[in-house]
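My current task is to audit a protein record that another person submitted. What it holds is a sequence and that sequence's fold in C-alpha cell form. Thanks in advance; the entry in question is below.
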Amino acid sequence: MLPFDTIEEAATFLGRNLTVAETLWFNYSAKKSDYFLFCHNILFLFLIFTLVPLPLVFVEMMRSLGFEKYKIQPKVSLSLSEMFKCYKDVMRMFILVVGPLQLVSYPSVKMIGVRTGLPLPSVWEILAQLAVYFLIEDYTNYWIHRFLHGKWGYEKIHKVHHEYAAPIGFAAPYAHWAEVLILGIPSFLGPAIVPGHMITFWLWIALRQIEAIETHSGYDFPWTPTKYIPFYGGADYHDYHHYVGEQSQSNFASVFTYCDYIYGTDKGYRYHKKVLRNLREKSRTDGAQNGGSYYVPTQDLKSE
C-alpha cells in the first residue's frame, strides 16, 4: 500500500510529476495491500497456464493447414481429450501446490526487499534485472535438472514430467509435486539476489512460464522471436531431451544452451543434428536424381 493519499503527495515526495505509468500504478495500487498485489501472481499463472497453450492446441488439431512441417515429432499426435487431460492434471497441481505456495511465500518476498512503491523502475532497469533472473535461474535449474536425471531423482520425481516424450504446451508445468517445489528455488534466487519492483517480479514469473510453454510446444516455428536471442535453446533443443527420455544426458538447460556446451552435455544433441543433416543432404541428392521430393522426420533418429 502506498503511503500517499493523493497524487500530489506522491509528486511532492518524488520532487517531480508522476509519469503516465506511475499515475496508473498509483491509481491502481494506492489502497491495495502489498500482499494483495503479490497474490496477483496466482491469477497471472492461472491465465498463462490456461490461455497461452491454446494456440498450440489449435495448431495440433489443424495440422492439415500446413503446420505439419513445423512439428518436431510429426508421427506423434495427441487428441483433444488427451491434451485436456494434461490441462486438468496441471490445474490440479496448480490448486493443490502452486497456488498455496504462492499464498504462503509472501513473507520471503517481503524479506528480500521486493517493493511496491514509487518511483517505478525504468524500462532499462527492468530489462537488466530480468536478464539477471533468467541467467541465475538457468544456471541453477541446469544442475537441479541434472540431479533429477540420476537414478533416484528420475524414478522418484522427474519421470512424471517425461511422461510426454513429445511435449505439448500444457505439459510445461506438468510434473511431480516435489519437482514443482524444488524448481521454485531457481525461480526465486534471481529476485532474492537482485530484488526489484513488484512489477518486475510479475513480469519475471509470467515470462518464465511463457518461455517454458514455448519450449515445450513441440513445434519449431521459423518466425519465433526467441530465435534471435543469443544461446537460446527453444523447442527443438528441449524436444530432443524429452524424446531421448529416461536415458537422456543431454540438453538439461531450461532456457539457454551455454551450460550444456560448457559442461559437455549437448554432445548427444549435436551428434543427432549432424547425422540428421547428413541424412537430409543424402535424401536431397537422391531426390534430385530421381526427380522426387525428400523428407527425413527428426524423430526417426535417436542418439545419445
User: Anything to note?
Assistant: Residues 291-304 have pLDDT under 50 and may be disordered.
